[in-house]
Amino acid sequence: MTQKLAAGLIIYRKLAESIEYLLLQTSYSENHWTPPKGHLDEGEDYLTAAVRETEEEAGLKEDLDYTFLSKTFSIECNYVIKGKEPKKVLYWIAKMLNPNTEIKLSHEHINYKWLKLSDACEITKYDEMKCVLNRADTFIINNMKN
User: Fold this and answer.
1) Residue 145 CB: number of other CB atoms within 10 A?
2) Considering the domain 4-143, what is its CATH architecture?
């Protein structure tokens, strides 16, 4: 069975002393909450897919709306879809340049929320995503410049 490949961004904003994460609620299946992410197009690398998917799903553009914390650090998430199909997702971490930038959802999502880590982990139903968010939070705190 072929492994599905996807990429996305863990987008955060800093408000006062608080870090909040952007999660989008899907318009399909179980309406679960996830960071912007999606499948790689043919011939596309992971990072390019993450940037493209973020713009498509949330209307956010690199360097205009967000900046990468690091393009060399990514978090790999592996899981099985519906008990059959293996999936690999690579996430990079990006910081919003303006914490009040408007999020423009695509047809693939019905809602979005900015959430503190504990709330983000509570709303996402998958342990793998909780692990990704916790690893991202640790990386952000250890690498925060301001």
Assistant:
1) 5
2) Alpha-Beta Complex (3.90)
Q: Give residue-wise pLDDT tens across range 23-63.
A: 999 998 778 899 999 999 999 999 999 999 999 999 999 99
The Cα 78–Cα 59 span in angstroms is 26
pLDDT per 10-residue tile (average), the chain, 146 residues: 87 93 91 94 96 98 96 91 84 97 96 97 92 96 78
Beta bridge mates, 86: 80
- Tokens (6 digits) for 50: 């993450």
pTM of the shown model? 0.93
Residue with tokens 């695509």: 106
Distances (CA, A) of 145 to 120, 127, 140, 142: 23, 29, 9, 9
| 10 phi, psi to nearest 5 deg | -90, 105
